[in-house]
Amino acid sequence: VTELDLQRENAWLRSSNTELAGRLGDATQALDALSRGEVDAVIFEASTTPLLLRAAQLEARRESAERLRMSQQLRVIAEASREFSSATGDYPRLLDAIARRLSEETRATCAVCLLSDNGQTLEGVAGHSAGAQSPGEPRPPAIRYTVADHAEVQATLDGTMLVDPPLDPPLAREPTLPVGSAATDEITAERCRLWLPLRLRGQSLGLLALLRAGPNAQPFDDQDRELAQILADHAALAIGNASSYATERTTRTAAEKAAKALVAAESRLSRLSESGLVGIVVVDDRGRVDEANDAFLAMVGYSRDELLAGVSLIDMTPPEWQDGTTKALEQLAAVGVAAVREKQYTRKDGTRVSVLIGSSTLDAETTKSISFVVDITERKLAQAVIAQLRDDHVANATFRGLLESAPDAMVAVAGNGAIVLVNGQFENLFGYGRDEIIGRPIEILMPDRSRGADPANLALYVRGPDIRPTGQRLELCGRRKDGTEFPIEVSLSSVETSTGRLVSSAIRDISDRKAAEERQARLAAIVDASDDAIIGKALDGRITSWNRGAELMFGFPANEVVGTLISSLLPSERAREEAGYLEVAARGAVQHVETTRPTKDGRAVDVSLTISPVHDARGRFAGIAVVARDVTEKKRRELVTVDALDAAMAANRELETFSYSVAHDLRSPLRGINAFAELLIGTYRDQLDAEGQDWLQRILASATRMGMLIEALLSLSRVARNEVTREAVDLSALVRATAARLLAAEPGRTAELVIEDHLWATLDPGLALALVENLLSNALKFTSKRAAPRIEFGAVQRAGVRTFFVRDNGAGFDMAFASKLFVPFQRLHVAEEFAGRGIGLATVQRIVHRHGGKIWGEGIVEGGSTFYFTLPLRPDGVLR
Amino acid sequence: MMGTILLVEDNALDEELTLRALTKCAVPAEVVVVRDGASALDYLFATGVYVGRDTSQLPTMVLLDLNLPRLGGLEVLERIRNDERTKRVTVVVLTSSTEDHDILQANALGSNAYVRKLMGFAAFADAIRVLTVFWLTLNERIPVRKPSPTLRP
After folding, report:
1. Of the candidates A232, A235, A189, which has an alpha carbon nearest to the alpha carbon of residue A212?
2. A207: number of CA atoms within 13 Å, CB side?
3. Residue A123 CB coordination number (10 Å)
4. What is the interface pTM, i.e. ipTM, of the complex?
5. CA of A681 vs chain B CAs: smallest distance (Å)
6. Do the beta carbons of residue B74 and residue B108 sit within 8 Å?
7. Strands A162-163 and A144-146: what pairing?
8. How far, in Å, CA of A784 to CA of A810, rounded?
């Protein structure tokens, strides 16, 4: 019950003074309302401490299950309370109700025993058997003790709840309980019996005996006992009220009659008065008592006569409360009502009683006022008890259990800075054993340099007189027993105990987190400094991060786009791409994509995207990270390159066309030269002398040679101009057939052929023939002067690439001129030595190049030559 | 009956050499020379300068160069084959081109033969002789019947 609750109650009470009495009187209704949550709090009659505590705890505890249990318990209590108070006027019925209620709620047989003979004898007055549906005519159990003879009975009457008192007849065996009682011989289990004291305002009324009998009897657990005691307290209250009611009825005085008459007008007020819950006092304008009910008399400890003899309420008010009382009286005189307030009275015996009091003038004609007074002394006490309970927790086992099960290292430090409590995790973290650290100063856990001067010093927090560190989290440096230091996070809370304030610290090793933070910071710096756009996207397509690179590349600042859908930045066809990236990334694949993305100002950026899946801490796919590189410039360069290539190829084609048409056109006049020279020599030979005929022959020979050159040029250009088709060609077979054909064309020629079998390549079949033919012709030509010509064809691996070769043991060449091997019309040998058109190797080179391959020659003068060439499976972009 | 050879040749040297070769082998035919593709068609369809020529009188053989001004040889060939009146005429492509492309095209368009103009007169003359002997002498054809004026109504 906090100050706040009290204020709330005050406000509630203040709402209507006339309703006050009725509401307060109907405590059961109020409790119902409380348990239903319709009201915030209820004020209880002073003596109902346990109930008050329940309510206080109900308010204090937040765990719903516990709260539910409590509210159920409260409902039971409320119902019992209502039943008991409704039976106040009928004493026997009340006792039966108590026995039945206790029996039902605790599932036990119940005997109600009250003191008689001035407290010397305990007598059974009512009983109820467990499980009895209809008790019929319940008879009181035949129980009669002389109190002094039984220590257990005396102890119970003195206020001690007894669990399993000795099986002492007759109470234990209950031989005269009503029908339906179980066979008691089988009572063997412990905690199946319970004796509860019935006490009211320090006075013992008697006791309640509870018994669970039978083979399946369950012991009373904590909750059973708690509930039983609360019900017993209520029963005691009801019994007390009922007996004073009975007493009052018989000893009513004329003055009491008048007071009764005064309050009888209001039936609820009457009931309130009778219930003894609220003290009622009627005073004049100087505070002199005109009337007071028993409840009020009990509160202040005066007899009615003493009060009526002239004791003023002002006299009973301690000095520090006088001002408030004076103000209240002024308020009463002015507006007829004094607000509900808290105050104290000095009892007759000098002790103080705390009360809640609300007043109003009685009627218009008189200056008298009526006040309703509630004793809150016990409640005040209860607050102190709760606080004490809380303190006690520090030392109790539950608390230690909690401490040990805490994930963090825990250390509690007393006000003087000494360590008083640590848990196992602490021992592990700091390397100190429990025994060696208890009692040592907290500073031992800190590096020397941070002691005292460092504002982030744990000791300062713990010892600082004005600092209330509850809930603070600090990042500090800790030191282990071995002297190593490590980053820690400390969360502090303070606990007030009877021995002073304790500061408990939960300490967590944050080395990993610090390291992770550092890594993250470094990564963040890299991400931020990157020229590439780095963008994070969640599964729903929302942008989760957007670095500076992205801001620069796309023009959108991060705060505009983070949290928005990526699709909202893209035209619809691009947005579909994004969905596809997520799908693929969900399968764990990293994607590389070239596409375009719009900028804020509407340009399109050519980007190369690397899209990687991102997983959360638990390894689940959580989104994608996209690294976008601006490739606009690269694209532009590529385009330039492609353009250049196109231009070069176009130029090349033009050149080929040109050479073709030149060759073609040259043929006609050449044919003229040739033909007419022939005609001349055929027709006019006789008219020419030998020299003339020789010249004509020279003309013819030159023309013929030129014709051959033109043909060669045309065939070379044909290689360049014609489309390349690709087929699998068995080069081995082709070499073998071609070599045979070429040898056959030169009667008498032989050569040793060494041909590796089954060498396949993918190339244009027509060009393959030209390739092989040219290389073999070449080889044959240069081995023509060898006695044992030898030509090899095979394949080797060069730099991991399959490389074909044609080798001969012929004239060879000087490597100094290797670069001229493949230049058209360049000859490394004089024409007279080896006839040739100078175009064969150029053609070969062009064929190899057209297939994306390479060709080179190795030779030794008079030591033979080897021509190597490669034929990739696909031409690597040489031609498009 | 004397046939006609239509020589389509723009090069004067080649024309001379061809005529000389034809003379040498004493071909039994009249040789008509046109210098370009369009004139060739004029002759065949009796248009232009050849208006009034009897189109029923088709040449026994057309010697067609490919590289011609105005209308190329292949186009001339195509027009010849696409016309009912001329589609059966013998066309021999006589050219200096040895391009696969030209040979394939000429074949596809329905040339009867593709003959290369060989270097050297003797070889060339020999080729011409073989051609004329084959097409004008060995090759059987339905004789072109000149409609009798008396049959006209």
Report:
1. A189
2. 25
3. 17
4. 0.74
5. 11
6. no
7. unpaired
8. 8
Tokens of A289: 């008592």
What b/e sequence results for A136-153 when a residue is b if at least 16 CB atoms lie within 10 Å of its CB, and e otherwise? eebebbebebebeebebb
Inform me whether the pLDDT recorded for A252 exceeds 70. no
Q: Give the contacts of A80 (CB within 8 A, at least 6 positions apart).
A: A101, A105, A231, A234, A235
A436 phi and psi angles, rounded to 5 deg: -85, -10
In B, which residues are within 8 Å of A678 by CB distance? 120-122
List the A864-870 sheet strands across, edge first: A752-755, A790-798, A801-808, A864-870, A855-860
Span A742-789, pLDDT tens digits: 998 888 888 999 999 989 888 888 889 989 999 999 899 889 888 899
Neighbours of A523 (CB within 10 A): 10
Cα separation, A756 vs A760, in Å, equals 11
CA distance A110 to A141: 10
pTM metric for this prediction: 0.36
Q: How many CB atoms lie within 10 A of CB B31?
A: 18
For residues A315 and A369, the answer to whether their CB atoms sit within 8 Å is no
Report CA torsion sign: A103, A106, A109, A111.
negative
Cα–Cα–Cα angle for B39, B41, B47, rounded to 5 degrees: 80
A-chain residues within 8 Å CB-CB of B100?
A: 718, 722
Q: What confidence tens digit (pLDDT) does each residue in A76-98 have?
A: 777 787 788 777 777 888 888 88
Q: Is B52 exposed, middle or buried (0-12, 13-18, 19+ CB in 10 A)?
A: exposed
First-last CA distance in chain A: 90
Q: Report d(CA A364, CA A377) in Å as an integer.
A: 33
Name every chain B residue with its beta carbon within 8 A of the beta carbon of A703.
119
Residues A200 and A109: beta-carbon distance below 8 Å = no
Give phi and psi for B61, each to the nearest 5: -150, 140
| Cα of A723 to nearest chain B Cα, Å | 11
Specify whether the CB–CB gap between A175 and A89 falls below 8 A. no
| Min Cα–Cα distance to chain B from A799, Å | 38
